[in-house]
Amino acid sequence: MSKTAFQIAAEKRKQQQEEKDSKKGFGGGFEETKYAGIPKTGEAVGRFIGVPLEVRELPWHAKQVYLSTIINDTNKYSRFVWPQEFAMVNGFALETGNLDESFIMTQIIRKVFESKWTEWDQSKLNEKGFKFDTTKQKIVNEKGHTGYYQDIHIDAPSYKWLKDNSFAGNTRKFIPNAKPGPRVLLPYLDRTDDWCKLNAHSKLFSTKYDVAEKDGKTVVYTDTGVTISWYKFFFDTIEKGTGDMEAMDFVMWKTRKPNLNTFDYTIKGITEMVPDSAKKIGNSNPITDEERAYKHYDLDKIFQYTKYGKILKNFEKRIRQVDIDFNSHFHQMLVELAKVEAEKAAADKAASATTTSAPSSYDDGDDSDEGEAAQPAAASSMDQAVQSRAGRPARVSETLNATESKCESYFTNWDKLSTDDKAEILKHLSRFENNLPVWSTDDNMLDCDNPECKYPGSAVRTRLPNTTYACPCCGTKFV
Asked: Per-residue pLDDT tens for 308-326?
């Protein structure tokens, strides 16, 4: 008997759910990310490749991202990749590792979770661990703290939304934190299987790699990368040991702490005292030419910042409630941001259509738990890194008039420029970040002819569009 259309659809839905379950963790929309990690029992054995986070240069190098999962208007969870601040380094806009405080969701989080410092009162002296510190002349706890930060909007509906981050009937065992938290993504050659060798591709490393059986299928649950504290532990271990994360394979395992849902981690080089099972598959040989040629995940592409269109689509009602609670205008701001974003995407698509048949990089984003959609690869790895970092739409507050006003106060010699020079600078200036100008492209940019010229209040060499004939910082005229 042939299957009905409904039966076929039901089987397809089940298959899609199984595929979704098998990819738990945070991956890119169009590109499945393969993880390796530390299992509940046994060891992880493999080689970290590339460079440490602090000296990142290429899109596949170790990367820090800020992630969170927030309940949306339809009581589903949507995942966020939060923007970071930028700093100009040698002409490139590079992420600083700090949250972008101008991002609308960062502003909302800061507003909802406003707090005030409250010192311990006399009643705490009746509790264990508290005492009066004669030096500080204040009551302190066991850690020497004299008080705590107390949230001040606990009765607001939007506070309950973000604090509880759940809904009636939620069956999740662990409720995610709405506040953004840093994670570090580390490229990794896994020795516990031959996937990297067969696919000539690295994996990403996770401190969680739990394998389970579900409905007769093997499902792997991972975290997205590692916590910032684990990365610091890893970095300190390498620094005290080999001094080089690529020097040899490392063996890692974890031990659950008594009565706690936390672990102690151990990291050892393959040449140290490690289990024989690890020695059989690991090595201390240099990375081979074959391994050097492996492909890697473009982390800038996979972990793109969450777009304004997606936020508007999934959180419009929630953000309207924030405006009601705080007499703010976040919804209006978001509508304008999404409009600018969509217009820019349409313009980029039109411009792209005249030169290439590649699809647009814009995606309005679907809801929930699937990560950000991957974008088409750019011409070169470093160009792609710069474009992906500098390509966010300008804030609504930085309309042309607001930007020009900022230029007048920022550039010392702005009033000495010709009308044409001002127009060229405004044309190429995307926004100001971290009190530095961020240009819409690094193409056709030149250093100021004055070698001593720096952006105001910084040590960064002044760079300007090559179509200008005078410097707004030092006033030097170009021949």
From this structure: 999 999 999 999 999 999 9
What pLDDT, in 10s, does the model give residues 170-229?
Answer: 888 788 899 999 999 999 999 999 999 999 999 999 998 888 888 888 888 888 999 999
Final residue of a domain: which of 133, 151, 169?
151
Q: Where are the beta strands (DSSP E) in 137-225?
A: 138-140, 147-151, 181-185, 187-190, 203-206, 209-214, 217-222
pLDDT (tens digit, 9 = 90+) per residue, 366-390?
444 433 333 333 333 333 333 333 3
User: In terms of residue numbers, what domain contains 453?
Assistant: 397-465
- The whole-angstrom separation of Cα 190 and Cα 46 is 5
Q: State how far the alpha carbon of 444 is from the alpha carbons of 343, 447, 464, 465, in Å.
A: 24, 10, 9, 6
> What is the Cα 54 distance to its own chain's centre?
15
- Each as own residue / partner, the long-range contacts of residues 424-429 (CB below 8 Å, 24 or more positions apart, any chain) are 424/465, 424/467, 424/468, 425/464, 425/465, 425/468, 425/472, 426/400, 427/465, 428/465, 429/403
Strand partners, 454: 461
AA letter at 68: S
459, part of any domain = yes
Q: Residue 444 — φ and ψ, nearest 5°?
A: 60, 35
Residue tagged 């699937």 (tokens)? 370
Could you tell me how many residues make up the chain?
Answer: 479
